[in-house]
Write a structure and sequence with these properties.
Immunoglobulin-like, 2 domains, seven-stranded mixed beta sheet
Length: about 190
C-alpha cells in the first residue's frame, strides 16, 4: 500500500512539475509579445525664432503688427535676446511690445537710423519658459514701395547676436534656427 501511495505521489509530482514548466514557458512567451517600455522622448534640440506673419503684402502708409515667435522645442529657458535688422527707408518700427513668456524685459530698443531692434527677455528664478509663444509684438508702418524684410541676426555658436539661453546651463545658447520675414509694399 505504501508503494502504491508513493507511485501516486510521484505521478502527481510529475504532473504538477509539467504544468508549472508549461505555465512558465507560456508566461515568458506572453511577456515577449507585450510592448516594451521605452525611454521618454527627448525634446527636439534647438530653439527657433520666427515671425508671424512671415510674408504679407501691404500698402504704403499701412500699419501692421508682426509677432516674434519663440519655440524652445520643449527645453526650459531662462532668457532670450533678439537683434532684428530692417531697412528704415522702407519700413518704420513704431514700437515693440513684450509678450508674456518671461517676467522681465530689460532691453527694448529701436534704432531708426541703423535699422536695428534690440530686445531682451529674462525669467525670474526659479521660473523659466518652455514651449511656443509670442516673445514680442512689433508695430510697423510701410513707408515706400518695395521689399521690406525683418532679419533676425543669428550665427550659430555666436553669443553677440540673437540667443535663447537654456535654464540652469551656465548660459548655453540653444538657438538653432531663425525664420525671417519678407513683406511686399505696393503703391
Amino acid at each position: 500500500m505504501n508503494e502504491n501511495f508513493d507511485n501516486k505521489k510521484t505521478i502527481i509530482f510529475v504532473i504538477v512539475s509539467f504544468l508549472v514548466v508549461v505555465e512558465l514557458v507560456w508566461g515568458i512567451n506572453y511577456l515577449k509579445t507585450l510592448p516594451q517600455p521605452t525611454a521618454p522622448a527627448k525634446a527636439e534640440a534647438g530653439a527657433r525664432l520666427s515671425f508671424s506673419p512671415a510674408q504679407k503684402v501691404v500698402e504704403i502708409g499701412e500699419e501692421f503688427e508682426v509677432e516674434l515667435i519663440l519655440d524652445t522645442k520643449g527645453v526650459e529657458t531662462s532668457g532670450t535676446d533678439a537683434i532684428i535688422g530692417y531697412d528704415p527707408t522702407v519700413i518704420e518700427i513704431l514700437g515693440v511690445r513684450p509678450g508674456l513668456l518671461y517676467q522681465k524685459y530689460p532691453v527694448n530698443e529701436v534704432d531708426t537710423e541703423s535699422g536695428k531692434v534690440g530686445f531682451s527677455a529674462i525669467a525670474t528664478p526659479p521660473s523659466s519658459f518652455s514651449g511656443r509663444g509670442i516673445l514680442a509684438y512689433l508695430k510697423l508702418r510701410a513707408l515706400k514701395a518695395g521689399a521690406a524684410n525683418l532679419k533676425i541676426e543669428f550665427e550659430k555658436g555666436q553669443t553677440t547676436d540673437s540667443n535663447v539661453v537654456q535654464a540652469q546651463s551656465g548660459g548655453k545658447d540653444i538657438l538653432d534656427k531663425v525664420i525671417n520675414a519678407y513683406y511686399s509694399i505696393k503703391d
